[in-house]
Amino acid sequence: MKVARAIAVAVLLVVSLCALFAGKLSSPDYAFQYREVPDAAPSSAHLLGTDDLGRDRLSRTLYGTRISLSLAPIAALISISLASLIGGLAGFLGGWPERITMAVTDLFLCLPWLFLLLIARSLLPLNAAPLTSVLITFLTLGLLGWAAAARVICTEAREFRTSDILLQARATGQHGWRLLTMQFVPRLRPVLFAQFLISIPVFILSEANLGILGMGVAEPLPSWGSSLRELESFSSFSGEWWKLVPFTLLVLVVVSFQVLLSREEISL
Amino acid sequence: MRRASAIIVLLLVFIANAWAQAGELRLCLHAEPKTFNPIQVVDEPSETIRYLTGGVLLRVNRTTQQLQPELATSWRVSKDGRTITFRLRDHIYFSDGTPFSSADVEYTVKQMMDPAAHSPTGDAFRSGPGDVITNVISPTEISITFPAPVASLDRQFDQVAIMSAHSPKKELAVLGPFYLADYKPGAYVLLNRNPNYWKKDASGRQLPYLNSIRLEVQPNRDIETLELRRGDIDLINSIDAESYDKLNAAAPQLTHDSGQSFDTEQMWFNQVAKAPVPDYKKAWFRSTAFRRAVSEAINRSDLCRIAFLGRATPAIGPVSPANHFWFNAKLVPISYDPAAALTQLQGDGFRKEGGTLEDRAGNPVEFSIVTNAGNKYRERMATMIQQDLAKLGMKVNVVPLDFPSLIERITQTFNYEAVLLGLTNVDWDPNGQMNVWLSSSENHQWNPKEAAPETPWEAQLDRLVRAQAQSMDPKKRKQYFDQVQEIVYDHAPFIYLVNKNALSAYSTSLTGMQPSVLRPQTYWNIETIAKR
User: Fold this and answer.
1) What percent of chain A has pLDDT over 90?
2) Would the CB atoms of A219 and B222 count as touching at under 8 Å?
């Protein structure tokens, strides 16, 4: 498993570096439409060909990777912060606060989040710059994605509340803030980290889903979601392997995150 | 002996089955039909069933675009355009055997014009307040008088399927080539040949040639294309450019491009005075020079070639050149000329500073174009327009929205700046566009429901549109509508972008196909279509 983990780290590192140096590795203008060569096959001018509007596919893939890979962790951080606050507090307090909080969490989990995102997206100001709309999209994803993690964190916190360790800590005179920082947070840290890592691919996929619906990252900014729209038609990629590159990258990154998350490897 | 008899019986069953299969046309409905009542039709699946089952008095020939007699042998429209008199065919029977007479026409018109029925078909005839008077002169002659003149009165009857006044089957008793035999919600609609259909071919053979039509409910267009390739269905009435190209590459014998259709794709700017848009932007959108400059800066040829894969033609105005009679041939295609567009803008007080276009007050020109999310052709066009207008120094934000949000913005809140949408023109006659051009109309999309025309050219549009609707002289109507087209061309309230091609696909086993640009493109002559 250590080998698998090393490969996963290497994949994430390479993909991140490619995204970071997107401007050096490809044409810096990911939005320019080379209209004389729309939907072209790979060539020396366009290593991964061009999309249906004649934009350089390599450049769009790399810049799209940069957006997806940098903003998904931010959304995950927002969501885990909310989840730890809500779930942790509920589990730690127990009793009716826990019951009410978990009932609200369950209700939140039942909401059709995709429609909530669509509504949120349609309420955005129309002249929001593409980058602003991207930030708001991921922020919304983060704000809506806390519920599942909150349940897990709540369970962990409840176990801690009823554990002998807590009893012992109290017996040694730890209370309030000290108890929280010295005992509670360290105990929750592995689960928070695991939930954080789980959330990243979830948010990447959520943006991809929104992108496929045309509601994700605004044109002309690229993202994995908008790149994957090319594959929505069942026969569009027959024989055109270069169109599968964004999909392959997405799978590689999501699988790498999954490998990092395997129980044996989380030894925090 | 027994074995031989069994083999013969089996053989006969097999031949009968094969014959039945050969005589069954299969195609897809993209949604569930909402009604089988012909006067209540609003959706495309119901319209398909009405067309295939309904018998009409007059029919527009989809290739010649001329009216031809059907259940009526002759007709006469009065000079004032209010009354139409039909002479009907004799010895005609509904699908259930009920005889057809002028009483059925009277019944249909009364049902259609009953305000309580809220019939969308009847709306086309509602030209003024008052009742419709029907006068049954004889079982084969009837006159119908409307309270006010109805433009193209006779052509409107192409949409009116005659219902039986006496049949216990009500609207399911039909006069068209097929009748409704079976319906399984979510699965299919089966139409069988009407044994009482009145038409015969030149050799005296009873029409229609087909035994039945099976309409499968299939919302997924990709699966529909796949089914055509597999031979599970026989035709696709209307196919989008991308699917057409793929199908054309794999099986060119199945595809048919009828050329420029009546449908338009256009964008317009929000000119609503009370719209929640900054005043300086409203001033741009209300400027003819600004709109015309935007129009000239859009490369329509590229839109056709790239967004529609060459299956579209640059649009000129509200009437497609495919509409031979009504198109104003004096209008020339709008040339792509960013330099001229910039000069025009400079004449209107705009200036380009460091790559950014600014208005007189120094406001940078930035606006959003909304369109419906999921429509890849419109999203592509909007993104291409974004790059075209960037050459003028305009910053355009493309915003795909879900359709309900988009409609709410353009019809209720008016919280938008520019919009890119399309118009499906099912009507050959421009009378169908009355509700778009009249300034008081809800569908006067760039500035709906104006209390009074807010610009002189809109007042002129109102006058011309009303004049053409009230005139019974086709030449005069044409003159009036030519002027409407010229005003729209000059003032660009709508910036017409492309006319999509009418694309269809059908099996080579079908004979008698005469695809047209008018709906329904492929099966408009259903009674003479056969399957080998």
Assistant:
1) 29
2) no
Contact B311, B501 (CB under 8 A): yes
Residue A256 lies in domain: 2-267
Burial class (CB in 10 A: 0-12, 13-18, 19+), B486: middle
Judge whether A33 is closer than 8 Å to chain B, CB to CB: yes
Question: Do A126 and B398 make contact, defined as CB atoms within 8 angstroms?
Answer: no
Q: Are B464 and B480 in contact (CB under 8 A)?
A: yes
* pLDDT beyond 60 at B12: no
If pLDDT is split at 50, 70 and 90, which confidence band does B176 have? very high
Which residues of chain A are within 8 Å of residue B385 when distances are taken between CB atoms?
none
Provide the domain count of chain A: 1
Reply yes or no on whether the pLDDT at A267 is more than 70: no
CATH of the domain at A65: 1.10.3720.10
Neighbours of B98 (CB within 10 A): 18
What CA–CA distance (Å, rounded) separates A67 from A196? 18
Cα–Cα distance list, B261 to A89, B241, B317 (Å) = 64, 13, 13
Average pLDDT, integer, range B358-364: 96
ipTM of the complex: 0.79
**B307 contact residues in A (CB cutoff 8 A):** 53
A with B: how many residue pairs have Cβ under 8 Å apart? 73
pTM, full prediction: 0.83
Residues 6+ apart with CB under 8 A from B371: B378, B379, B381, B382, B398, B399, B400, B401, B406, B419, B420, B421
Q: Which of A188-192, B10-14, B25-29, B339-343 comes out lowest in average pLDDT?
A: B10-14
Which residues of B make CB contacts under 8 Å with A?
A: 222, 226, 242-243, 246, 299, 302, 305-307, 366-368, 370, 373-374, 376, 379-380, 382-384, 386-387, 397-402, 405, 415-417
